[in-house]
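Note to self: the last two entries modelled the partners one at a time, which told us nothing about the interface. This time every component goes in together.
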Amino acid sequence: MYHMELTSASRSHAIPSQPLIDRFPFPFKEDKYRYSNNSKALESPLVLDITPEYFEEVKSKRDILAKTHNRAYQALSHSMDGQWEILENIIEEMVEQHPGYFGLEKDGDIWTFYNYLLEEQQTFTLGDPSTLPYEPLDFIGRHVQEDLIYIGHRNGDLYMDAGQLCFPANWSIAFNLGMTYTEFHSPVPHYSDSGLAEKVRNFLLRMEAGKPWTRLNWTLTVDGVLPTFPEIFDEWGTKANEVTVENAGERVYLRVEDQKLFRLPRSYGILFGIHTHLISVEELCKKQEWAVRFCNVLEDLPDYMAEYKGFLSYKPYLVQYLKNSF
Ligand code: HEM
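The predicted structure of the combined assembly is written out below.
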């Protein structure tokens, strides 16, 4: 039994709008980029970042989940405790940090969650999945912009046990489900053979509750497509062939994943949150120091990384566009 209905509240809590260029997490700290463990302690230990794109992105996630659920949501049955822990943590954060957007009433284990932004409410019993319309991770993921991955920690290893992934940077939760950390990173060139994969794995195995980490990852996407699923590569991947020096500013987007890692003390798993931000190269060039730095990073980048990230074919056009901008 579950119920979900609209409240009478109106959308009175507009999300403050700051220009994208002033809030975009530009990822380059120097003129070159190589893989490294660029994780940093997360100063304010929060999973969520609510931006003006909230409505559009949550709608897009829900459309994807409605049409192609198995592509965007997968979970092994033993992930259920971890899923409840994630739901509880996220709802607590929502109401503490954003009381104007979300609310919660508790009657013992019976919780009523309010999303004032979307004018929705849901009553459910903690720990009883039959009281929710979807599994807990799949439910709470429909109220946030982040993709949410649950990593199980058992037998001294890390496993991809569940995930709601609507905006993948060309990887598949359906394909990766159940894989170990080493297995799901195997497509990343020179990640294992350089010894970095093992170092990062040991770092993740030692992660402690209450000490979350964050890192930025980046790639490029043509036309700002967020759901770059490998399963529909033909719908977005071939756009790379259409990039020219003239249109690179408008069509190519820098895509930055703000990734956050939390040890979950109860299930002893890890929550891996991914908030994907996009900015067109044209917009990015409004900050000349960003355009110059980005250009230097691209020129220095080894081909194997540009190839893996999917832009080797149009990199020269993009570099030329950037040079023309300063
Ligand atoms: C448990 C947390 C993590 C999960 C679930 C995760 C998952 C993934 C996945 C699925 C990919 C794509 C692989 C593919 O092409 O199929 C990837 C790429 C990558 N991961 Fe992780 N990862 C995690 C933590 C980390 C950390 C802490 C680092 C730190 C160095 C890292 C470094 C990388 C790098 C360098 C890539 C390649 C990205 C690119 O070049 O665009 N990962 N990760």
